[in-house]
């Protein structure tokens, strides 16, 4: 073990498996609730299974339960860690941050720094990757916390959905008008605002134009930056996501890290199928 600092995230942070499986990274899963059973996000149910069942039932999601949190924290301690960066999806979208904070009070022997990413999926994942880099660099907990908090405004997520039905039914509509996507084939470009709540960045008629609007806004966001990380995510539309990835690599060529993944089942519940988007995080 290189140092005594672990990284604890929730499954909504959406770290790709090749990253979340690294030593020193621990993940607390959200829960997915159907009428007949409860499943563990990305453990006992897959994204494909979620989408296959949406026509018959739209499940709900819930916070990680206390027993699951306690088991993971006990594992962190058993593995020899005495400190942890705890990084979660936005408090404006989920109570996961508070659930972890409350449960961690039972473990005073683990010193923690709580980070609310004000983001979700790849917007949070890129911050998780950065957190792991800082940990591996050997910095102390206070310095890592300071840098992560300062970095939060540097990350921005965008996604385009063919319907807002799932966000609305899941109670995650935020500041996005639930009627936008139904009229005139308008696809809103959705992001998280400074408080970490969904809002509409812009809107366009059709998928192709909405993706172009996303890229244009990202180009303005990075401005003169010549170093940034990018992550592309999708909900059951990998070919659209691959096409978006190719375009982004042409238009935003200065990426330091490039992630690609399908969103977790819990996030898939809220966005529904055929959603595509990306996040960008400035590094200079």
From TrEMBL:
Keywords: Lipid-binding. This is Fatty acid-binding protein DegV. Gene3D superfamilies: 3.30.1180.10, 3.40.50.10170. Pfam families: DegV (PF02645). Signal peptide: none annotated. It comes from Vagococcus fessus. One of its GO terms (molecular function) is lipid binding. May bind long-chain fatty acids, such as palmitate, and may play a role in lipid transport or fatty acid metabolism. It comes from the Bacteria.
């Amino acid at each position: 073990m290189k140092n005594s600092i672990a990284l604890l995230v929730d499954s909504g942070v959406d770290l790709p498996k090749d990253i979340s499986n690294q030593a020193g990274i621990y993940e607390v899963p959200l829960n997915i609730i159907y009428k007949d059973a409860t499943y563990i996000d990305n453990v006992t149910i897959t994204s494909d299974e979620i989408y296959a069942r949406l026509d018959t039932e739209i499940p709900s999601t819930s916070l990680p339960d206390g027993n699951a949190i306690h088991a993971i924290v006990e594992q962190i301690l058993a593995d020899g860690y005495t400190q942890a960066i705890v990084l979660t999806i936005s408090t404006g979208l989920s109570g996961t941050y508070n659930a972890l904070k409350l449960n961690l009070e039972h473990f005073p022997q683990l010193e923690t720094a709580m980070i609310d990413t004000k983001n979700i999926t790849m917007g949070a994942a890129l911050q998780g990757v950065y957190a792991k880099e800082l940990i591996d660099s050997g910095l102390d907990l206070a310095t890592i916390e300071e840098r992560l908090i300062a970095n939060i405004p540097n990350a921005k997520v965008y996604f385009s959905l063919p319907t807002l039905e799932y966000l609305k039914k899941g109670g995650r509509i935020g500041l996005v008008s639930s009627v936008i996507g139904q009229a005139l084939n308008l696809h809103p470009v959705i992001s998280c605002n400074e408080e970490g709540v969904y809002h509409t960045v812009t809107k366009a008629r059709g998928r192709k134009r909405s993706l172009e609007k996303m890229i244009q806004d990202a180009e303005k966001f990075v401005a003169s930056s010549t170093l940034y990380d990018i992550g592309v995510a999708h909900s059951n539309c990998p070919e659209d996501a691959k096409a978006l990835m190719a375009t982004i690599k042409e238009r935003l060529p200065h990426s330091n890290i490039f992630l690609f993944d399908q969103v977790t089942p819990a996030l898939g519940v809220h966005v529904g199928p055929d959603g595509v988007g990306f996040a960008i995080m400035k590094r200079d």
